[in-house]
Amino acid sequence: MERTFVMVKPDGVQRGLVGQIVSRLEEKGLKLVAARFESLPEARVNDQYREHLEKPFFPSLKKYIMGGPVFLMVWEGRNAVAIVRKLIGVTNPQEAAPGTIRGDYGIDIGRNVIHASDSGESAAREIAIHFKPADISSYTRIDSAVIYEY
Ligand code: IDP
Ligand code: MG
């Protein structure tokens, strides 16, 4: 089983998409193991997006992410990192396939509704930025026996 970090960005929260997004991941069969609603402090935004610190869009990205509360989550499941990246769609919502979260809900690249880790390594790093080990629950979804073949 793998864990991934997912965040509904401020535009997604303000547009009332938290419930839809949680439902899509739940219905896929992934297991929610941690969640928190809060406004991110600057240090954690810099840490979260450290590979983009020098990019020309970073100042606007930071303003966007700090523009309101976000919904932080950890999801668990077999191949969860790759599955969630597929469910959210590519970075630019105009190119994201219909049926994906960005493809269904976004228009501009700088307002793309949701973040999800892009690798197992990023997932571990990003989860540790936002959650303590004790924040993450361990339980069995009652339907896991019919979601997984083995
Ligand atoms: P990702 O979120 O699909 O992993 P990244 O390339 O890691 O995409 O970029 C992180 C975030 O930075 C994007 O989700 C988007 O919010 C923002 N971003 C990326 N490229 C641009 C851009 O060219 N203009 C404005 N914002 C951008
Ligand atoms: Mg990224």
Unreliable segments (pLDDT under 50, ≥5 consecutive)? Answer: none
- What is the count of distinct domains? 1
Share of residues in helices: 40-55%
Helix run count: 8
Kindly report the CATH topology: Alpha-Beta Plaits
Secondary structure tally: strands: 4
From the alpha carbons, calculate the radius of gyration and give it in angstroms. Answer: 15 Å
Give the biggest beta sheet: 4 strands, antiparallel
Neighbour order of strands in the largest sheet? 2-3-1-4
Mean pLDDT: 98
Which hetero ligands occur in this complex? inosine-5'-diphosphate, magnesium ion
CATH architecture: 2-Layer Sandwich
* CATH top level label: Alpha Beta
SSE arrangement, N to C = EHHEHHEHHEHH
| N→C terminal distance | 12 Å
Q: Write out the CATH superfamily name.
A: Nucleoside diphosphate kinase-like domain
Describe the overall structure.
The mean pLDDT is about 100. This protein has a 4-stranded antiparallel β-sheet. The chain has 8 helices and 4 strands, in the order βααβααβααβαα. It has a single domain (about 1-135), classed as Nucleoside diphosphate kinase-like domain (Alpha-Beta Plaits), CATH 3.30.70. The protein has about 150 residues and is of the alpha+beta class. Bound molecules: inosine-5'-diphosphate and magnesium ion (MG).
Tell me briefly what this model is.
This protein is an alpha+beta fold.
Features:
single chain, 150 residues, alpha+beta, Alpha-Beta Plaits, four-stranded antiparallel β-sheet, 8 helices, binds inosine-5'-diphosphate, binds magnesium ion
